[in-house]
Write a structure and sequence with these properties.
This protein is α+β, with helices and mostly antiparallel strands. Helices cover about 30% and strands about 30% of the residues. The chain folds into two domains: about 130 residues, 3-Layer(aba) Sandwich (Aminopeptidase); about 140 residues, Aminopeptidase, CATH 3.40.630.30. The protein starts with a strand and ends in a 5-residue tail after the last strand.
């Protein structure tokens, strides 16, 4: 092995390094879900998300063997939340990736990293570098598409997708209200441009970005879905419902509609980074749990 480390090149937004990380995540999940908590769809959503700390993207660490990424150390949305993923054939890199995260991915000395429960080699190494487990978890769940439940919309409600006449103001509105922000959503040019960026990934299949339209024309529930032909899984992100329209079955319907459409394209399983009872009630089951480990200022 001739592994070389370097930092991520964040420019342009969809840079060559962006593609390399996506291809890395696709490769290590091609036969089985090695990183169900962070599939390539999660990477696509993160890199386009308005909440991502873009000032420090150059701190992302890449390890390459003959130009092919075999490990990454990145942060999730803010600096200080570290994520490390390693190809199984390169697990000897565990100490080096943890050391890099400790040095470069902290936020004024504060850092936590996510470790798969049951990964004892990673856990032991994290202890040596001063990390300690917390009670904070990250869970993922899956649904087998051949077991998809039936669903329907109330009278007057209908599905719309990006492949149809997509309304960006309505998309902004449902995202604002669905994440429980107070007051009216601002539809100024900058805000709408940020919303468009969030759905600008070249990997998006427009038919899989689905919303529910109410009788008055407002988008009141929304589900994003990530899938590429040849994958056995699709990835659910994000899911929101307007507070005034909850408990009507709209969230269930829009999620299952997106999954059904992915199944028609070849997906066999849907994955979501959540353990909410909502997902269990519509057919998902738990497949993964990781623990956030915090860096402690212990004496050397």
């Amino acid at each position: 092995m001739s592994v070389v480390f370097r930092n991520y090149n964040p420019k342009p937004l969809f840079s060559d390094d962006y593609v390399k990380i996506r291809n890395f995540l696709k490769r290590i999940n091609a036969k089985k879900l090695s990183t169900p908590n962070f599939l390539w769809g999660a990477w696509e959503w993160e890199i386009t998300h308005g909440g991502l700390d873009r000032d420090n993207l150059g701190k992302f660490g890449l390890w390459e063997d003959k130009g092919v990424v075999v490990a990454i150390a990145i942060y999730e949305m803010p600096l200080g939340d570290g994520l490390i993923f390693i190809d199984d054939e390169y697990r000897s890199l565990i100490p080096e990736t943890i050391a890099y995260a400790k040095k470069s991915l902290h936020d004024n000395g504060k850092l936590r990293i996510l470790i798969d429960d049951g990964d004892y080699d990673f856990s032991r190494c994290a202890v040596e570098y001063g990390f300690r487990p917390t009670q904070n978890k990250w869970d993922s769940s899956a649904l087998d598409i051949n077991m998809l439940q039936s669903y329907s919309l109330p009278d007057g409600f209908s599905f719309v997708s990006m492949a149809d006449d997509w309304n960006w103001q309505q998309y902004n509105r449902v995202m604002w209200r669905g994440f429980d922000h107070q007051g009216k959503a601002s539809h100024d040019e900058i805000t709408i441009m940020e919303r468009k960026k969030m759905l600008s990934s070249p990997m998006i299949i427009p038919e899989l970005i689905v919303a529910v339209t109410a009788p008055d024309g407002n988008y009141v529930s929304h589900c994003g879905m990530w899938y590429e032909a040849g994958d056995f899984y699709c990835y659910v992100e994000p899911v929101v419902t307007d507070p005034e329209y909850r408990k009507m079955g709209l969230g269930k319907a829009v999620v299952l509609e997106g999954i059904r459409r992915s199944g028609n394209l070849g997906a066999k399983q849907a994955v979501v980074g959540s353990k909410q009872q909502f997902y269990y009630n519509i057919g998902f089951y738990p497949i993964y749990t990781g623990t956030w480990w915090e860096l402690k200022n212990t004496p050397n």
